[in-house]
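Handoff note, outgoing to incoming analyst
You'll be picking up this chain. Sequence as last confirmed:
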Amino acid sequence: MKPKPRMLKAIKQGQHMLEQAGITTARLDAQLLMCHLLQRPRSEMYIGDHPDITPDQYRRYMALVRERQERKPLQYITQTQEFMGLNFRVVPGVLIPRPETEILVERVIEIYKEYYGQGFVRIADIGTGSGAIALSLAKYIDRCRVWAVDVSRIALDIARYNADVLGVGSKVEFISGHLLDALKAQDIGKWDIIVSNPPYIESDLIDSLAPEVSRYEPRQALDGGSDGLEFYRRIIGDCPDVLKGGGYLALEIGYNQGPRVIGMMNKDFEDIRCFKDLAGHDRVVTGRLKNSVQWSEDRC
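Most recent structure output, in case you need it:
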């Protein structure tokens, strides 16, 4: 193995710069930025007979480090985020998928296996963003069609791109529109499963979040109104108009929102369950729409 003094020096320098910026993952981020520059897996960074970086590569690496030093999310710099074992393109203007959202996807897959067997299902993902939820479901549930809804043109463009790369474009419909109103406008019947990771952060708390979030991620994908529950009220209230009787609603929630979201669902849903994340916080709520529920103008 040839020594790579310029690369090692650059990574050490990058780590120091990120530490000075208060980034707790400085060493890892410095390495991942080098991996991105060289288009090489982290496992191969220090092994193999690769040449050392060139002066031009060193300059480009330092430019990447300076971007991260400004607290720009690593995922926006590399334009990629792994989710459910799949690689998704992400860009500024599109929410970065979080690991805890995998719990939501896993729960929907479990619902499908438990209640639908090998049957065909229609699934709607409300607020699809990069498509992480919708496309993962399309990838891992063979017999399904997924409707991916978002108000953001940038998000829908990125989700379409990701669908093509992942090979699930033929199973997904992309809809520009707001929440369940977008499904109502389709006038094609009802859905078996509705899933959503809606904005759920209280408006007043957003500016206090980490700079990577508060400065760079789209506020409309974060802001859940004064109490963080604005979108849950809309989605839960409109479900009877677009969800089949006996169909399932699956929602990601904030760590302290479980009891309140469950309270909203009690009227029209049964078999309501709450699932925790690895930190022990409430993270996902699911429920089955009662067969007796019918939508009317004076509901909710």
